[in-house]
Design brief:
The protein has a single domain (3-279), classed as Alpha-Beta Barrel (TIM Barrel), CATH 3.20.20.140. By secondary structure, the protein is α/β, with parallel strands linked by helices. The strands form two sheets. A four-stranded parallel sheet has the order 1-2-3-4. A four-stranded parallel sheet has the order 5-6-7-8. It is globular. The chain has helices at residues 34-44, 58-69, 87-98, 122-133, 147-156, 178-187, 215-225, 245-257, 265-279, and strands at 3-7, 48-52, 74-79, 103-106, 138-140, 162-164, 193-197, 230-232. 37% of the residues lie in helices and 12% in strands. InterPro entries: Amidohydro-rel, Metal_Hydrolase, Metallo-dep_Lactonases. Pfam families: Amidohydro_2. Belongs to the metallo-dependent hydrolases superfamily. This is Amidohydrolase-related domain-containing protein.
Amino acid sequence: MKIDAHQHFWSTKRPNDYGFLTPAAGVLYKEYLPDDLKPRLEEAGVDYTVLVQAAETEAETRWLLDLARGADYIAGVVGWIDFDTDPGTFIQRLNAFRANPKFIGVRPMLQDLPDDRFILRPRVLENLRTVAALDFPFDILVYPRHLPHIYEMLQKVPLLRAVIDHMAKPEIRTHEIASWRFWMRKISRFPNVWCKLSGMVTEADHSNWQQQDFVPYVQCMIKHFGCRRLMYGSDWPVCLQAATYMQVHNLLAAVLEDLPEKLEDREWNAVFGSNAARFYKLNLLNR
């Protein structure tokens, strides 16, 4: 079973709550829906996907859940809820969404917020403790500059079941790695924090990336997180700024294939499928 742990949909026909969805977005400024992705999944042999929010609204989350209901390959939706709100209101909204079996995780868009320390606000921390108590998956969308704050948050909420999206977007284009590696190593010591091997091509030179550009970053992830806490994600259609779906899929496979220490079959299966199923608690066998 192969799972893409990170992809998006959006529509220019909806009320625009995305912000980025303007003509200036180039290839992204169009409608991307389940029928657009399905043939690409079939070509790559991907059975299921995790659909992730792209707007800071509950309206988009409800729309994504509607899409998931009509597309069997969508294993679940990672949606959005306001974390900086009254804890009573937060748990009410969270439970309302959790009543839908395809609501499998939650993600605030930390990378876009003006306050880099948003994750450490008192109400946010209290609501994160609620998520941790429920053992409910939490996606972390950040840049490297946010990692010290993520580490501090994890010290305060150490039981949070969390996954770092896109490896925290290291500066692959400029080959910067030292500070990113330092903080990722520290964060990896929390055993319930995972990482998605996704979003790499858009952090590289869009028109001239090479396979070798990504090797040190993936090696770092395997060294510190191990193959049982890493998962493949395409970040489609965002990836289209730099690569096709198959190029993204095959790039990760090629990088893993060329590592000095070869992965065993069970490790391949973990990265490309079973880890996502375990992290998001996906029950796919009876579908």
